[in-house]
Amino acid sequence: MAEAHSDYYIPEPSHWPVTASLSIFTMFVGGATLLNGADVGQYILGLGFLLFVFMLFGWFGVVVKESEGGIYNDQVDVSFRMGMAWFIFSEVMFFAAFFGALYYARMYSVPWLGGEGSGAATNQFLWPEFAAAWPLFEAPSNHGFNHFKETIGAWGVPFWNTAILLTSGATVTWAHWGLKIGSRKHLIAGLAVTVALGALFVGFQAQEYGHAYHELGLTMNSGIYGATFFMLTGFHGFHVTMGTIMLATILGRSIKGHFTPKHHFGFEAVAWYWHFVDVVWIGLFIFVYWI
Fold first, then answer.
1. pTM, whole model, 2 decimals?
2. Which is nearest to 267 in space by CA: 193, 191, 186, 201?
3. What is the pLDDT of residues 21-54, one digit of tens each?
4. Which helix (H) or strand (E) holds 4?
5. Whose CB among 171, 182, 217, 258 lies 3.0–4.6 Å from 253's, allowing a Cys bridge?
6. Hey, what domains does the chain have and what are their CATH numbers?
7. Please, what is the angle between helix 157-180 and helix 265-284, to 10°?
């Protein structure tokens, strides 16, 4: 068992970091093998994923037991908050890269290919018939390009998903308020509604993807528009899925009686993450669907 000290905290040696590294390495090997055409890669990838899930349950289980056991001091709480803050910052940079790619392609690359600015020579000698437009329905070179009929409008499923996520931000805040005033009823109710809204968002996005693929012909292979659309919305959907699982875990812990008004960083960390997901979606709605 780890020991608590008045000024600092020293955890006991643990095998979980090694297990985490081994699981990630196994998934990497399996994914690389699968991409190179070997069927055995899917089994290696599956094994790595199962090992990763086992690590998550085991490692977080230890942290929860230590937290509920009262051995964490204020220094640990500060460390957790700093770690979560840096993690969210890394996620901000992750999405900034994809938003940057969208901006560069839309504002610079496509106009240059159409002959604007320094791209005049490129247009004249390589693709003189190419006309710059966004979204890019027709690529300069059609090798392997999958044509699509139209884009997904902002005022259908994306609008309702925006309303769902904004509402979920309010319900998780409601749950936080209930926790701080010691009302477990409000805490559990707010979390339950938030989890339901997160699952509803993912369901709507899955429906949207089916419509895009099968009816509009919009796929990852639909040029720069299709690539940036699915990279941004797909990774965001993955984050919503993970956030919903995290919220469901916090809901289960709340039902078991975990967290107090003074001691609830586990809840706050997930709430921070969920608000980050909300903010990213607003950017997606504006720059991917609306403008």
1. 0.90
2. 191
3. 999 999 999 999 999 989 999 999 999 999 999 9
4. strand 3-4
5. 258
6. 1-72 (1.10.287.70), 73-290 (1.20.120.80)
7. 160
